Amino acid sequence: MQKNLGQETVIAHCGRQPEKHHGAVSTPVYRASTILFPTLAELDAKDSAKLRYGRRGTPTTHSLEDAICALEEADAALIAPSGVMALSVVLMSFADQAAHFLVSDNSYGPTRKFCSQLLTRFGIETTYYDPAIGAGIESLIRPETRLIWMESPGSQTFEIQDVTAITEVARRKGVVTAIDNTWSGGYFCKPITQGVDISLQAGTKYVSGHSDIMLGTIACTSTIYERLRETYLRFGVCISPDDAFLALRGIRTLGVRMRQHEANALEVADWLENQEQVIRIMHPARANDPYHDLWKRHFTGSSGLFGFVIRETDRKALARMFDGFHLFGMGSSWGGFESLMVPSNPSVYRTATQWAPGGQTVRIHVGLEDPKDLINEIASGFGRLKN
């Protein structure tokens, strides 16, 4: 692909080679396990072949890898069947004997559980650090530290990390860095260009955009790729070509969707600020957020996911509020076209820092509906909360 193209042009054309697929605009779905070689010489040389066995990829999955590379401005990419599988591949790739990991205290629950429940069996020690540590992370690095894991913003509490400060220290110390970049969809943030070695996403969210596939993406620098790929191959990681096709379809509209998610979420957040039930909003793109200046340095926009805190209430009152919603669904995940809202308790995942916001934390994903309709529904919910 040409250099210096606008991002909208990149996502419209990345991972597409119509001339190789009989002129089809989108790469077709290739379902394959066995790949045949017409000559013995070609069979003998299969290790260097782009296509050699379905588990190692098909033209459909390779197209998605190319598209993720372009989206994340990375050197290489791997595709996993879920976000958790993607993070598992990354963590296992650096799980040397007696290794030490540094993991941000605001990280996604399954990331922490993988470290605390699985990696400890192999003698891997994890230290959880304050997301606001910045360059101070140098004091936590040991000779055996192999990986620094970031999540910015945190998917429940929305702290922004000083990624460039952390990566500068990590490079000087020879430590690999990885970041969960799901919140930006790879559209509003390019961690690889900020010095991060590995940027991964739960592609289930914004890359897909339609709440109908499971997907994980790993984008990385060329120096890290072979190590990741070796782990990926040894675990037999592969994805359905049908899911790859749907993810490629999602990427084509990523820009349009992300900008609308951003606008809708900011409108809802601005309204929430003036509601008597709301005591705090966690949305780093808003000027009064404590992480706003850091957000401006690392991001070009914001997505539909943010949080807020309502005054302390009991579970029965929460049920009255949430059970009456029609436009907001309650469920895991986010990043689809539809709006979601769930009460949450981030404190159960904290060990290095404390989460005590003085009320009930709520996570909201603002979808592509008319934000005025969403605001009216929340207002009705607040009414039920009081009665």
TrEMBL record:
Query: Which biological process annotations from GO are given for this protein?
Result: L-cysteine catabolic process to pyruvate; transsulfuration
- Name the pathway it acts in: Amino-acid biosynthesis; L-methionine biosynthesis via de novo pathway; L-homocysteine from L-cystathionine: step 1/1
Record keywords, A-Z? Lyase, Pyridoxal phosphate
Matching entries from InterPro entries are given as: Cys/Met-Metab_PyrdxlP-dep_enz, Cys_b_lyase_bac, Cys_met_metab_PP, PyrdxlP-dep_Trfase, PyrdxlP-dep_Trfase_major, PyrdxlP-dep_Trfase_small
Residues with the N6-(pyridoxal phosphate)lysine modification: K205
Recorded GO molecular functions are: cysteine-S-conjugate beta-lyase activity; pyridoxal phosphate binding
Show the catalytic activity: L,L-cystathionine + H2O = L-homocysteine + pyruvate + NH4(+); an S-substituted L-cysteine + H2O = a thiol + pyruvate + NH4(+)
Q: Which cofactor does it need?
A: pyridoxal 5'-phosphate
- Indicate the family of this protein: Belongs to the trans-sulfuration enzymes family.
Protein name from the UniProt record:
Cystathionine beta-lyase
Species, as recorded = Phyllobacterium phragmitis
